[in-house]
Design a protein that fits this description.
The chain is of the alpha/beta class and 176 residues long. Helices cover 50% and strands 14% of the residues. The longest helix is centred in the C-terminal third of the chain and has 19 residues. The mean pLDDT is 94.
């Protein structure tokens, strides 16, 4: 109830609710118990992001289109599907589906890749002044491209090292 109250307050004051599904295989046995919370989170979200692994665990789906059409679109119209080195797929407002290439990276570790993807997306939203009204009118392909380019760059830089976050040099180049 406290989280729900916080989300309602945030949304009523113009916050963008970004929900990362982040459901790991070690919690596979908790899917049924967590489903009501998952659905509630999807309903609050302005943007949902999930990885192929997340949707494989929660819904036994390993395809972006199936995940969006069967499980996400009813609750949220903006969906970002990540799949490691494969293209990131974005669905927006029921009419846009676009794939964005992932930067080639010499991967050392994937720990932190999703969190850094999220940080890169949020950084780009701040940098390009993306607001709730922009989401509601529908982002252009160019706006989505800027967001995903930043998100995948953050994720790729994280994967290139062993520390689970972006390098100091990368951070300096992307300082707001």
């Amino acid at each position: 109830p406290q989280v729900q109250g916080l989300l309602e307050y945030a949304k009523s004051h113009g916050a963008i609710i970004y929900y990362d599904v982040n459901f790991r295989p070690s919690h596979r046995g908790d899917v049924m118990r967590a489903t009501p919370n998952l659905i509630e989170n999807l309903e609050f979200a302005d943007i949902v992001r999930g990885s192929r692994d997340d949707f494989n665990v929660v819904y036994k789906i390993d395809d972006a289109d199936k995940a969006y059409n069967a499980e996400i679109s009813f609750y949220c119209k903006r969906f970002i599907y990540t799949d490691g080195e494969n293209p990131t797929v974005v669905f927006s407002d029921g009419h846009m589906r676009k794939e964005y290439a992932t930067p080639k990276t010499e991967t050392v570790s994937t720990i932190g890749a999703g969190d850094n993807f999220n940080a890169g997306l949020i950084c780009a939203m701040l940098r390009h002044d993306i607001r709730r009204a922009d989401l509601e009118r529908g982002l252009t392909d160019g706006e989505w491209a800027k967001l995903i380019e930043s998100a995948t760059a953050f994720s790729a830089d994280c994967c290139a090292g062993i520390y689970n976050y972006v390098s100091e040099e990368f951070g300096e180049k992307h300082r707001l």
